[in-house]
Specification:
The complex is a heterodimer of chains A (about 600) and B (about 180). Chain A folds into three domains: about 80 residues, Ubiquitin-like (UB roll), CATH 3.10.20; about 80 residues, 2-Layer Sandwich (Alpha-Beta Plaits), CATH 3.30.70; about 375 residues, Rossmann fold, CATH 3.40.50.1780. Chain A is built from 21 helices and 17 strands. In chain A, strands 2-1-5-3-4 form a five-stranded mixed beta sheet, sandwiched between helices. Chain B has two domains: about 60 residues; about 100 residues, 3-Layer(aba) Sandwich (Glutaredoxin). Chain B has eight helices and five strands, in the order H-H-H-H-E-H-H-H-E-E-E-E-H. The chains are: A alpha/beta (about 600), B alpha+beta (about 180). The interface between A and B is medium-sized, with 17 and 15 residues.
Chain lengths: ~600, ~180
Amino acid sequence: MNTTMVNIKINGDNHQAPLNATILDACKRAGIRIPTLCYLEDVSKNASCAVCVVEVKGAKSLLRSCTACVYEGMEIATNSARIRDARKTSVELLLANHPKDCLSCLRNQNCELQSLASDLGVKEERYVRTKKIEKCDTSSNAIHRDPNKCILCGRCISVCQNVQTVSAIGLSGRGIKSKISTYMEKGLGNVACTYCGQCALVCPTGAIVERDDTDSVFEEMSNPDKYVIVQTAPAIRVGIGEAMGMEPGSLVTGKMVAGLRKLGFKKVFDTQFTADLTILEEGYELINRIKNNGKLPMITSCSPGWIKFAEHFFPDLLGHLSSCKSPQQMFGAVAKTYYAAKMEIDPRKIVVVSVMPCTAKKYEARRPEMSGAFDYWKDKRAWSSEDAFYDVDYVLTTRELARMFKETGITFSSLPVEEFDNPLGASTGAAVIFGATGGVMEAAMRTAYEVITGNPLADINFTAVRGMEGIKEAEVDLNGMKIKIAAAHTLKNARTLMEQIEKGESPYAFIEVMTCPGGCLGGGGQPIPTTWETRRKRAESIYAEDANKPLRKSHENPNVAALYSEFLKEPLGEMSHHLLHTSYQQRGLLVWKTNGAEKKELKTPHHA
Amino acid sequence: MDGSRTLEQEMQEIDEVISRYKGKHGELLGILEESQILNEHKFLSEDALNHVALKTGVPLSRVYNVVTFYSFFNLKPQGKHTVTVCRGTACHTKGSRTLLDDLGLILNCKKELDEGEQFFTTPDKQFTVTTVACFGQCALAPVIAIDGIIYSNVTTSKLQMLVRRISKVRKIHENH
């Protein structure tokens, strides 16, 4: 398609821009920066903040450059006293209703409003507060909202409605009473929210943040009775460096391990170990379903936001979900049974901390059924419900881990490169790529192919399922049996595939779904900002790590093999059934009517 | 004269409304408007909103967005009679604030009105007091509306008389 170019003048200089490009885009092409606040590329264009205004010759008023388009002969000024004054006033008016508690805000020094106020030269409080103080929403154990810090930019709504098609939040009221609300002000914990955290990732201020668990983890680590171990998801090694001030996508596996040891974790393990384990369980489950006319397509179950989405929006199709727990939950279950027994540690004293790129993982760890290890021990040791514990005790996001590193004065860039502890730290390249969209699919195919055909793969790189396209599909030939597979990221794309299944039109045998754009590397707990550019860089590092691994297929992981021979016996066996597999709950949309069970939290010994 | 019906009946009536609007542009507004009118207390209960959302496929947050944006929609039960006090500039200068205070005393809901409640319904569900920005009848200020009928040049005694008249009619009904 030919794009018509138009001639425009920006600040007196001649430039060309595609017809119908926004002034903002045209200026970006010309290398001229216009400050923005509510605008977010590919996510929202609400034109609500009036920060990106420019002067256009002949226009009656200043125009918002994020939505106004260029035309032939347009003369634009991006920097004049009038513009500077207008931008500053817009920000000052927002600040009038914004709490002045920056120093104790989780987004301190990573806040767009804060840096804009500084960039635009705000020096005094010129306007008085006009809004009522609103209650904070702490109804979920994953995401907290503080409406007082909200500037009504609408990014969170755009991402929730358009990218995820969840619509857990929306605008309510009118005029000065406008605010971001959940249905009937029930709170995120009581509506159909998936806790994907994309709202927190796009929020320019601290109005939506992850629930902070850093203090609880510090407290556990200072308790001499506790054996605090940590697992890290694949996407952390390509995110934490960035959060510590390095280049986006920096691959810092070894430094991260060293940093976690310095922080005080007794053992530093890898969720990738149980990612390999997941592939074996899930691979065998797929083979089993194909051979025995089981429910197809089978859909991956690693992404807890996706699971909750399916439970809310497609409660009748839950049979399509793999019964495998996510790698995080498998890790918790294995650590508090197999590892505890092997090392002769009282599982009640083990505290499993996960570092995840994800806010929904906080919720997943608190699902009442996620206490497989306790169920395993309680009869053997005659423990009562007083001793009950979850498989995973705390979940930290990448951002929280960065805060802990900073709080303990760890200079990340000068850390040595260290290795994960054994045995739960060994992993293959197949596990690394869990962090990118299409990765679980590729990893599963590497194993399923070899198990079914008995032949080694000629080329283990399934490039068809790599990349940032919304839904990727491929056909795999397994010894003459051709199956179609698909990988989707974002819940909007997942919805498309689910609607296909609903209509009985799904051509696939196996589907991978990742909740967040780009997969876990673009998760709701990752460093802010996360853009498509940073997602691509993180994906590059993920695939580089995979290529560098000596072992790249999950079934070749020697420690996973040992886990089976010493403890689990076989994939899909009796022990796996109890520890590594789970079931799902039909939730529907009227959550508050049915979530009584969810509210009852298991008593954790740590708060006793 | 039993106007009450079961929740199930009300939902069936809402279903009928939804089916009439199916496929029409802006169906949600029409459905919500009619659903409110068919309710005995002229409001949209949470059950009604849930029902509309599930039946139309409109997200719950979107339904909430619409019903909180338009002041026409009531999320709380309305009284049998609505007294609307104009709070426009002309009426204000002619003493509409006093009329509002008077209503607070007459109907025993002064506390709620002082606390800035948008509207208040008496516990016996007989009266709802609400305000409006302007009726466009400024020459007759101050004006109030009772059940849609506008009364002009209202004074405290006139207001007392109007309210008492409604209450009396009610009493007569109850005695028969």
